[in-house]
Amino acid sequence: MLSTLYAVLFYVATILLVTGLAVKIRQYARTPAPLKIPTTPAPTTRSGVFWRIFREVVFFESLFKSNKWIWLFGYMFHGAMLLVLLRHLRYFTQPVWWWVELIQPFGIYASFAMALGLLGLWARRFLVERIRYISNPSDHLMLVLLLGIVLSGMNMKFLTPTDIISVKVFFLGLLRFQINELPDTPALLVHLGLVATLMIIFPISKLLHAPGVFFSPTRNQVDNPREKRHLAPWAAELEK
Amino acid sequence: MAPLDDSAKKKPAEMMDVRGPDGDPLEIPKFACESMRESEPYPAYPEHNLKLGFPGELIDNWQEVAIAKIGELAKKNRAFQVYLDACVKCGACTDKCHYFLGSGDPKNMPVARQDLLRSVYRRYYTFAGKYFPWLVGARDLTKEVLDEWYAYYHQCSQCRRCSVFCPYGIDTAEISMAAREIMDSIGIGQKYCNEIIGKVKDVGNNLGLQEKALAATLEGLEEDIEDDTGVSVRIPLDEKGADILLVTPSADFFAEPHIEGLIGYAKVFHQAGVSWTLSSYASEAANFGLFIGSYENMRDVSLRIRKAAEDLGVKRIIFGECGHAWRVAYSFLNTLAGPFDFLDQNYPIPQHILEFTWNEIQKGTLKLDKSRNDHIRLTYHDSCNVARASRMGDKPGGQFEIPRNVLKAVCNHYYDMDRDTIMESTVCCGGGGGLLTDEIMDLRVKGAGPRMKALKQVTDDFGVTHMAAICAICKTQFSKVMPKYGYGMDSILSVHQLVSNAIILDGQEDGEDAAPQGDAAAAEANQ
């Protein structure tokens, strides 16, 4: 019963995440940018723009220029999350890829950095007047949700282990449309429930910053308006 | 450009403390909630709105129309759609706006300003906002919200400083332009911008200066130059067959220090030996269509420049010193009024006057005597639209280098202000984005605070006496607000004014003789 419930939950969450993101990405890609608005100085070539976005996504360059504390906590959280996510690939692959084995120890301890980063970001929502002012309940809850995922995961890893082999069998089964037995360890159920929640709200929340950063005209446009005429389809209509 | 009023002539007693503002230019102020709520520019009259294709006054079903307009703009403008969605409220932008730094009103923090509109977008266009508005701070569009929009979207100079620091490049200027367009679409216009755009459509410039008056002004300037230098330098108007059309802000025709810049352009063209002309039909570089986010109005104004270039048969277009005009020219003109197949493709289309002057300096066609600016210890204010929304020259960052190269070529004493307040991090003058109107002077003075503190630092450290700028709005704004910070209204200079001072025209007597001669001539004329 419980296994079926979680199986359905994860199928639904996956469908909502994938289609929701696909719809949003399609919307961003199809919406025209009527004018050239790169924040200058900006690269004058496509490869330059590639590197600008690369630095933005990999190093959080603008955030670093802006505020070292937010950068520190934000980078700690995102970097650690990447390691943790990659580590989790071991539960979906058989045999486990060599490089996933390699990062396993780093992935485990990254959870501490992830929690610390989230706590730092959350503390700023309370302690810094300016950030307190702009925070809505959803901004706090998003951090609570992520912290819940991290702490329940750490609990399984370091305090009350679950039957991880069965968990892996469950998820490998889902990939083949079979429903196997899921252990009923409370920490596991909480962990998975929160992860599914995160997947479901991803395309309808501020987590859209992830695809959004690639579609931001101030960052992804080439600075060449004098050399190359830029015209949106709806603006071309005005010329008829 | 708004005409200069006479407030700079007010008695010193009426001014603020004139010891100058000390301290860190970017110091974060204490919160002063709602302190700027009452700052509102005058609303447009129905005739101003109607001329631009907007309803004359607030329409009955304004809520419905405004909400639909949000959806329409999100479909037409990717930036608007992405920026409404992507903000994570990280707070990186919260201390980046000069109006927040100057006023302490938290609604002047970029993210809070965006949220005034984002909250309404969420209410009507997102799942969470429709069903759990309290969770995501979503709000119904009420009259109170609309009034708040009017106040705070007219406290954004669209300078884009926040967009430099946002991890997603969210540009509050895009949001504030959209907000103004939404308000215009329901009949809530701002008088200053909408009236001026109407004048451009009627007469060709922001001032409503007619062709005859313009011709007379230019003739007077030619006489002034001849009196000063003994050399006849022309400022041609509507001359068919000239090579270059110069499009410059109309403030250059009458306001100080703008007019000294125009004299500078004329001297540079004269020495370079090129043929050039102004146009009475397109006698305005400024394009306030940008400020109200109206593509159509911005396009109409831009097309005047194309028409003038075609009618006069010029080969090149050069823009004078104006910040947002250069943004529209550099970034948008090709889009709005291109393609410019009929112009000479060997030159940038359009070109900035500083690109032209710097080329001439490098070629050695200008004879410059730097010592003629020795009474000036200079710094340079990067105008926001030039710095963050355009370029000069071939390389990114040319918009910072070329003006400084020119200034250093004509002036011996040049000093930059705090690095965090110049170049791409420049702080706005406080009067851009359609806010250069006197009923919101309090806002303008507060918004200039960070720049004035940065200036005070170089005054203290290096004895800086003057600041140069290449934007008509910056110049007017500073000549008005600098006296309130203990500087003379003539402490702000045009870049080409300094060029004009240093340039020695062919046939002009060298060095010191020329100026007294001009003074003598002026003294005679006064008798």
> What is the percent of helical residues of chain B?
40-55%
Which sheet architecture does the biggest sheet of chain A show? none
- Overall shape of chain B: globular
Order of helices and strands of chain B: HHHHHHHHHHHHEHEHEHEHEHHHHEHEHH
Q: Hey, roughly how much beta strand do the residues of chain B contain?
A: under 5%
Structural class of chain B: mainly alpha
Number of helices of chain B: 23
Radius of gyration of chain A: 21 Å
Domain count of chain A: the total is 1
- State the end-to-end CA separation of chain A: 63 Å
Poorly predicted regions of chain A are: none
- Give the fraction of residues assigned to helices of chain A: over 70%
Instruction: Give the beta-strand count of chain B.
Output: 7
Spatial sequence of strands, sheet with the most strands of chain B: 2-1-3-4
The H-level CATH homologous superfamily of chain A, spelled out, is Transmembrane di-heme cytochromes, Chain C
Number of strands of chain A: 0
Q: What structural class do helix, strand and pairing data of chain A support?
A: mainly alpha
Write up this protein.
The complex is a heterodimer of chains A (240) and B (527). Chain A is mainly alpha-helical and 240 residues long. Chain A has one domain (38-222): Fumarate Reductase Cytochrome B subunit. Chain A has helices at residues 2-30, 46-59, 61-66, 68-87, 98-127, 129-134, 137-159, 164-175, 186-201, 209-212, 217-220, 233-238. The N and C termini of chain A lie far apart (63 Å). Chain B folds into 2 domains: 18-189, no CATH class; 197-415 and 464-506, no CATH class. Chain B has a 4-stranded parallel β-sheet with strand order 2-1-3-4. In chain B, strands 5-6-7 form a 3-stranded parallel β-sheet. In chain B, strand 6, helix 21 (472-481) and strand 7 form a beta-alpha-beta unit. In chain B, helix 13 (258-272) crosses helix 22 (495-502). Mean pLDDT of chain B is 93; it is low at 1-19 and 512-527. Chains A and B meet through helix 1, helix 3, helix 6, helix 7 and helix 11 of A and helix 2, helix 3, helix 5, helix 7 and helix 9 of B.
